[in-house]
Amino acid sequence: MRSGSIIAGATLAASLAACATGRTDQPAAADPAPEAVATQLRDAGGRTVASASANQMADALRVRVEASGLAAGIYGIHIHAVGRCDAPGFETAGPHWNPSDREHGRDNMRGQHAGDLPNLLVGTDGRGSFEFTIPSAGLSQGGRRLMDADGASIVLHARADDYRTDPSGNSGARIACGVLS
What we know:
The chain is mainly β. The chain contains one helix and nine strands. The termini are far apart. 33% of the residues are buried.
């Protein structure tokens, strides 16, 4: 019996030592993934037509877009390099986010911009959404970081992106914009 008491005493001492140093055998709760959100993409009249978020994942960004109240159709949507959305034309959002100095479009042999996203398909109910992963990108770290000193924005364009024409895929006018923060 004496050896059982010694083992129990040693286990208790180890547990107390772990508590005193802050160490436990329990895994620490994971920190939430860093996120940048544009809660409101607004059109030139100030009406909210979409929301977007960019979440950090290992060495990639996961972008989510949800739209409502738009006419049925296909819309180009891109991440732009500046965190400003001054109506009516949203030109203050700057060019597409392009940290690798490429040309536009996944079908362009010299493309694609990091900010090139898939087209947004909006149904007859006025709603559309997608999730898309941008590899080798980060919110605030690395060479392809999104959130630099002047921020970033998400811009919705009037027409579908053709995925090849530089600089914006012939996607037409900027019709809505939201600042990522």
